[in-house]
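Annotators were shown the component list below and the corresponding predicted structure, then asked to write short factual statements about the assembly.
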Amino acid sequence: MSFIKRAGLYCFRQRFKTVILFLVLTLIATFMLTGIAVRDAAKGATANVQTAIGGKIMLDLDTDGHMGGGQQNQWGTVYGYNGDLITQEIVDAIGKVDGVVDYNSEDTASYYGAGVDFKYLPAAFGLSYTQYGEASSYTATLSSEKCSKFQSGKYKLVEGRHITPDDKHACLISKELADYNKLSVGDKIKMYSLDSDAISEFEIVGIFDGTEGTSGNPLTVDEIPANCGYIDYATMFELWGEELNGYQQLTIYVEDPVSIQNVYDKISALPELKGKTLKLSIDTDEYDVVSTPLESLQQLVNITIIIISVVSVVILTLLLTIWIRGRKKEIGILLSVGKSKLNIILQIFTETIVVAVISFIASIPFSFSVAEKAGAFLVSRVTTGTANLDVQINAAYLLPLYLIGILLIAIAVIASSWTVVRGEPKDILTKMS
Amino acid sequence: MSIIKTCNVKYSYDGNRNVLKNISTNFEVGKIYAILGPSGCGKTTLLSLLGGLDSPSDGQVLFQGEDIEKKGLAYHRKNNVAFIFQSYNLIDYMTPAENVALTSKLPPLPILERLGLTKEEAKRNVLKLSGGQQQRVAIARALASDASVILADEPTGNLDEDTAFEITNILKECAHQMNKCVIIVTHSNELAKQADVVFCLKKAELQQL
Amino acid sequence: MSLFLVVFVVAVFLISCFGVLKASERLSRDIRTSLGAAFYIRANTEVSMNEKGETEVKENHVHITQKEIDEIMQTGEIKYYNPINYGFVKSDTIQFVQGDKHTAENNMGKVAALRFSALAPNFTDETAVLVEGKHITETDNGKILISEQLANANHLSVGDTLTLTHAKLGEADGAYIDEIPVKTAYTQVEVLGIYRLSIEDTSIKPTAGVADNEIYASLDVLNELNESEAGIYTGEVDFYITDPAKLESITRNVQLLQSIDWTTHFIRTNDFQYSKIADQLSSLGDLVKILLVLVSVVSTAFLTLLLTMRMRGRMQEAGILLAAGISKGQIMAGFLLEVLSVTIMALILSYIASLCVTGFLGHSLFGEMQPNLLNEETITAGIQNNLEIENYLKLSAVETLLIYFCQFIVIAASTLVSSIMIMRLKPKEILSKMS
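Structure shown to annotators:
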């Protein structure tokens, strides 16, 4: 009788044990598959966190050795930067680099505008040095969303939208100023700038809050944060003409902080930057702060899965060992009728593998439903609607996992049956009775 | 005709206490041998050595003049000898027919029928048979193999007198009609009386009575 | 023996896994702590309409006392609070950067007196950076930060001391004047640090309004100069909390405090940075929880399975005992006692083993990690924090006991159930089945 037939008979006649083995293996396989799916999801979540935090590359003017000879004025020598500015051409080129998601240049208090058809919140000292009254300062920006006060959460856009690089004659004003002047999104305001002696019209594209109660000890209108807004850069260029033909600084946002070096290399290789007195630097401060615990967190998930795998294998080996030891008598008989040790091991191996293959197949629908449940649980826990996270069984893992599973079972079977088969047949037969 | 033979076989546990010393005996086909002796005297050990379940500490077991270790003990067990045990040693998840088929490619039913099992019994769960029936299955398994030596360890130990008598007759038949060499280890004098040759194992030595 | 091994392995396994959950919670908390969150108590601005239909604006002023702050500090896990008082100072030895219509009389600078200068808006917005010395913290007295420009103009450096006196900017006949002409209060201060402004202030302002003339001082400085009262704060008060997840509940509790006039004060919260990753972070935590549920289910299933098998294997023994006239209850009690005593031994040993496992895991996982306590670092600017790395994986005694207890229950229950299943059979059936 061949070992295959014996294996078949064993599986069929010892239904209880076969079913238990089947259940255990199905459980372990389901477990592993779900574990891997969880690991993938955790990886996805980590990547999402990294993207949410993002990385920054700063492009600044290189002021070393490019400050000119200096000019005397009433307070001493004033040096002016005489190197290259960041031109629109450079900005456009950077915008096209792979991995760059956004960029911003922010120039605080670069525009002083007096209200032609609106009033500022009054300050203690009124310095009406223009014919339209006091002027307040504005921050010129390419992308107001990325401005530091919005990034740190101090300001929040409450109406309308942010200023984008394509905007012209657009502004953001504070909620207090809007309320004070009964202005709303879409309204146009006129401002007079003493520096360029011109009146410009701006459309209010957005209103932000967060300024209320932060004035401190204001002397002039521009020291009241509520009076200070944001305007687009295009208007600045228009007002200043040739005098201002570039940005002072550019912050480049990279989606994935992990590959930031890559993006940095690409940007520094841009022909538009060749020979310019500009310097590029990576800023991953914010990311660094969370990256270590985040990576540890992900590692924890991995370790849990490894522990689970190891324990599963231990449990399986234990189970098989207990059973195979229980089959001592049978092994003794088979040895006494002249079956070789290999033949006996092959029989046990066949039995287990047949059950294993069936349980692996059975584990697939199980795992899918467990993964689905896990995914649904995650979605239900996420407060903001967009849960771009899913627990999924990746089909590519199935085959290698099963192969490894079969290999481990083979090792477990051989290891545990060897302890029995190793003994002299006489010992086995005398021990058993 | 001599079929299996021991040459100066010694056996000891841990190298000190000699269980068997210098045993040289000849066993022939067509005869039934009985080995008597008190419990623990080494009867079963001798049988294990003959059957290739164990190796002697010293000396040789020859089958048809050839050392059984030469072709391997498993080969010896598979082709030359068959065991019958006191506790029958049937595989519990197999039917009698399947147990017999373990050692032989021949159809098992004729052999079982010859030993007195019905067709229906031959396909029942082994554990649901009576002791005598189980031992018949074990003998059938031994006969089904081509082995010329049948080694029986207390084959009637678990059986009532009548059944024991029947089993003894079957074993005699095996030796005399099927021309097998049947070696029985027992402490039953009844069984020994039926044997052609009776040995007694005393103080680690084998004496013919 | 096999039972011992299994219980042992399962216990070590469960403890390690729950240790992992604990560690993941601690890590999430670390991440949240490093992002932090804040809420600010500010005075509101009332915009109203007068009879002529013109809008009028009324700015309220903060009035918060130390007593109220202490009450707020008790509402939750607040790490720092930073109240601000504003004022003006003069000094015989300082020539301020000249502004519009500068005179000797209006040669003064604005002062922001606070607990933690690093948390002042200019520093958190990074429009100002400390270039020398240290930031002011709660323990400092008589300390100031000045701008690089002011330090250079007056040849001041870190460690220098100078005497300040009170002042108040006023306006009369188009000129800026000092409304406190007679000086009665003086205080000696030490320059603790020097900061640099990154923005250029080009607007026309009186000397006191020039950004470079701003002085950050410890809270006592303005008290000494009679410009503020100890324990009363009139600028906005910022509170920094370690765990953004608790922001909502903390502010809700603060809002319940009766002692603060909520008609003129309001709370603004800021957890923007955390909110960006909050969902993902909680998803990660949930994933670990899912894993643990799986682990627990599988462990339970396995223990039950093993014990059931074991019981079936002992049917014969039960049959013999029954035949010997021992009652079912006694047999079951015997089995239970046996299993449970093995269990207890395994659990005790597993505790020691799990200490090793978690110790090893903790070392390999977190050995290199420094807790990221950003706030602490920013505030003391370079002062080392000698925080010990907690054993992230360590479970508390109660949690360990709880795991053991659950395991114990599972084992006891499955032993009982499987032995009851055997005992329901008649002794004859058992004995006939077994052979």
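Statements collected:
1. The first strand of chain B starts at residue 2 and ends at 13.
2. DSSP finds nine helices and eleven strands in chain B.
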